[in-house]
Amino acid sequence: MTQEELFKKLVAHCKEYGFVFPSSEIYDGLGAVYDYGQNGVELKNNIKRYWWDSMVKLHENIVGIDAAIFMHPKTWEASGHVSAFNDPLIDNKDSKKRYRADVLIEDWLAKQDEKIEKEVEKARKRFGESFDEAKYRETSPRVAETAAKRDEVHKRFADALNANDLAELRQIIVDCEIACPISGTRNWTEVRQFNLMFSTQMGSTAEGANTIYLRPETAQGIFVNFLNVQKTGRMKIPFGIAQIGKAFRNEIVARQFIFRMREFEQMEMQFFVRPGTEMKWWNEWKNTRMAWHRALGFGDDDYRFHDHDKLAHYANAATDIEYNFPFGFKEVEGIHSRTDFDLGSHQKFSGKKLQYFDPETGESYVPYVVETSIGVDRMFLQVMSAAYTEQTLEGGDSRVVLKFPPALAPVKVAVLPLVKKDGMPEVAQKIVDLLKYDYNVVYDEKDSVGKRYRRQDAVGTPFCVTVDGQTLEDGTVTIRHRDTMAQERVKIESLHAMVDEECSYRKLFRTLNL
């Protein structure tokens, strides 16, 4: 099965089992907008809780806010979004499809990396245990040729981005013979910039309305509240402000399911530090955030750092944490050193001082900022991609199982009476009542127990509890473990402790060492 086929199966699974639906589907949907179903919203909320609690509860110097989506229009002038929040777009004249020029080139670079890895794997199989990978990479003419070409294009690409040279971006696409995935032709237009902000009107009449924007990021709500939080919370630098909220971008090239959408949710934390210490904190937050991702247990090798070729106008350092999705390594989280650009710019545009008096040094200054920013929807897709597993079982049977970390699973326990009689449903309902105040629990009595197990595997439920005849005699139930499918008899009164041990966030947090 190809990675593309796997991804199509994952998207279909999301719809079939109540995770993600196309928005307004009865009206044929709305491009790059999706709704979260009954299981999707639970998973999404659990991801947000894992992030929020690890930021706000585990760090004594980080607090949270919830800023409004609408902000004064001057905010976006100060932040640079009005003048500089653009994507370089290019059209294929034959397919009439529009693409981001930088993404086309990035995909080409990724293919060169794949070529090199395939050559290395071929050699590894050919030479067996005697294979010296480092030496082969240095001496193989094929690897050297591909690497040299890739490095040359990468340098041109980075230079073009930093110089905002749209003509050079197009020339790279032409020189690399990059074709449109739809038409297969290389009949490209010029590259041009497109602003991504949605605008709307605020006012009682059209004539008197003001143009305002739906926020394209949540960070500015934190920056304009910097002094409010610092003074009311008596916060001392270094400290952070966290926020989870919606953002909106008029993505022309929305693709790959919920990976890139027009309405999305962000989890951001802005960490305010003394000027001159920002690189130390940037490196610390890189390591902290990578540990947060790897604590989920999806495999350390499927994560990597990717430093930016082009720094944003506000940054002096930037890297992404990328995950190996079915469509390749892509960004899940960004860690940026934003300098004092944001607070300094808002200070200039508003005419209000946004400075911090440091009691340790006796001086006032505009703090520098280190940002960590995750797209909730991308994180959702990353968790789904990592958890989705197709297994062939003994006897030729098969199952699809979502191997979520138990704390993130939408449903923690499914309670199943063996039959719908003999008092078993009543006992099962009592077990639901025992657990439901602390965990999301479902009751299921339809079909055979085997079919019910498969349904729960498909939504990632860690535990299935079956009530049978023996339960009525000795108060024990069968508990089935999702990943191993192992079953054991346990007392009803011990269920809560078992579920708590496996499904609480404590188990994840202990690995973070915060």
From TrEMBL:
Keyword Transcription regulation appears in the UniProt entry: no
Binding site for ATP: 249-251, 259-264, 331-332, 375-378
InterPro entries (alphabetical): aa-tRNA-synt_IIb, aa-tRNA-synth_II, aa-tRNA-synth_II/BPL/LPL, Anticodon-bd, Anticodon-bd_dom_sf, Gly-tRNA_synthase/POLG2, Gly_tRNA_ligase_bac, GlyRS-like_core
Subcellular location: Cytoplasm
Stated family: Belongs to the class-II aminoacyl-tRNA synthetase family.
NCBIfam families in the cross-refs: glyS_dimeric (TIGR00389), PRK04173.1 (NF003211)
Subunit text: Homodimer.
Identification of the protein by name: Glycine--tRNA ligase
Naturally occurring in which organism (per UniProt): Alistipes shahii WAL 8301
Gene name of the record: glyQS
